[in-house]
Amino acid sequence: MVDYLEKHRRIIFWLLLGAAVLMVYAYNLLTPYLSDDYAYLNEVRLADSLWDLVRQQYGEYLSNSGRIIGQFNIRLSLSVSKHVFNVVNSGMFGALILLLYQNIRRRKKHDILVLLLIITFLWKFTVDFGQTMLWICGSCNYLWGSVFILGFFTFYRHLLECAEGIKRPALTAAGAFLFGVLAGWCNENTSGGGLLLVLMSAAGFFFDRRKEGKRAVYPFMITGAAGMCCGILGMVSAPGVRSRSDTMSAGGYTGLVGILSRAYKITVTVRELFFVLLALLLLVFVLLALQQRLKSWREIRNNESVLFAVGAIATAYALVLAPTPENRAFFGAGVFLMAACIQGIVDAFDRELLLRAAKYALAGILCLWLFFTYVENLVNLARIYREENERIALIQAEKADPDGKGIVVIPNYREAFRNPYSNAHNSDLTNDKDYWINLFYEVYYDVGNITAIPRDEWNERYGEDSEDE
Q1: Which residues 6+ apart lie within 8 Å of 394 measured at CB?
Q2: What is the mean pLDDT of residues 247-258?
Q3: What is the DSSP string of 271-290?
Q4: Cα 39 to chain center, whole Å?
Q5: CA torsion sign, 428 to 433 to 435 to 437?
Q6: How far apart are the C-alpha atoms of 244 and 128, rounded to whole Å?
Q7: Contacts made by residues 457-463, CB under 8 angstroms, sequence distance 24+
Q8: Pair 412, 429: CB distance under 8 Å
Q9: Residue 369: strand, helix, or coil
Q10: Do the beta carbons of residue 417 and residue 467 sit within 8 Å?
Q11: pTM of the model as a whole
Q12: In the prediction, which pLDDT does 468 show?
């Protein structure tokens, strides 16, 4: 069996990657427009050209958010068919897998084990998968943003590794600056964590090369980091950021007390979201220390697990500057932490047969977990998708009724279908017609009044229960 895998490793690698993309594509197909998607749909359908979308985004930059890259990608995604987004978003998931794979050092060529660890870690440990990987507004900001950030870091590391062989230094420096601006303008804390990874990598390169008596500074090193700084500054200095921050922080603690309060909440959230990853990372560091592979400061600062772990911690605690962040804001920290753990597994579990066996057993257990979880929630997504189509049909029937009063009551999503791969329940309509998501639906479907009540109550009033057994 082992010989067969080794012989056909390249084919199996690409088949597994293709299967991973198809798996998330199926979930994309079963994820309808949700929550803020409707708010942007209401704006996007008023645009007649790409320039109109640009003007809309500039207005949002002035009034609400500095994330030009992610927010503009939302508008582009909603201006085309949902099927186009499904394909592109699935491709972004595949790109994230490949970028994480590319950043794992000392692996085999077409390493199946590393690929399986990345795929299963993403499905198991991604923060709020439904919000950050499938929901359009969330995916464009978190999944796509992380692809741009990790893509730039991968590009930067590659340039460091082949710095002496760069043939067009001026063009490379200019490209690094532009790519850096793109990566820096994606997400406040994840872009900041990406910048820290870039700076730590550049510092390690500088000190190692200077110790060897070789050239230690190249133009791309400066322009790439400067580009990220420009992107981050352009994002956090947006007028809309200040007004939104003031609104969100109203009534909360301020000053040092506010910072300490938010740091405590972040610590609690990190424990809830990443305890297993942190425990695994601690085990990795203990093994590396026992193997005498973290003896000197140079070995510590050049260790990729340490590098990504520091980036993850910085990405998480940068949120101390933001009022009451949602869990999905920790998405980038989770990606960096996964990279740290997988790199540590590759490094620490390669010395003895028992450790190698544990490594393969871990991959097998995660694959088994993924199989059962995927099948169960594929059905749940299909059920939610069906319920949303039923609700839309109710709204459209009322709108088409010439004798209708423009008042629609729809059922809430069934709680039995709630799962971490859908944002539907977290942004469901309520029985308050003036609730924000209700208003989005009313404007989008041009109906005067839409409310939602629990499914059991709706069945008693208007219909029969059709829940799947």
Answers
A1: 408, 410
A2: 60
A3: HHHHHHHHHHHHHHHHHHHH
A4: 21
A5: positive
A6: 23
A7: 458/409, 458/410, 458/411, 458/412, 459/411, 461/409, 462/409
A8: yes
A9: helix
A10: no
A11: 0.87
A12: 45
Q: What is the DSSP letter of 134?
A: I
Model pLDDT, residue 395: 93
pLDDT band at 451 (very low <50, low <70, confident <90, very high): very high
Q: Give me the amino acid identity at 425.
A: H
Long-range contacts formed by 343-346: CB under 8 A, 24+ apart: 343/103, 343/104, 343/105, 343/304, 343/305, 343/308, 344/280, 344/281, 344/284, 344/285, 344/287, 344/288, 344/305, 345/117, 345/280, 345/284, 346/104, 346/105, 346/106, 346/107, 346/114
pLDDT band at 184 (very low <50, low <70, confident <90, very high): very high
Task: Say if strands 449-453 and 407-411 run parallel, antiparallel, or are unpaired.
Answer: parallel
C-alpha triplet 248, 239, 264: angle, nearest 5°: 35
Kindly state the tokens that stand for 219: 């133009």
Which amino acid appears at position 458 of this protein? Answer: W
Question: In this model, does residue 354 exceed pLDDT 80?
Answer: no
Q: What is the pLDDT of residues 292-307, one digit of tens each?
A: 888 898 899 999 999 9
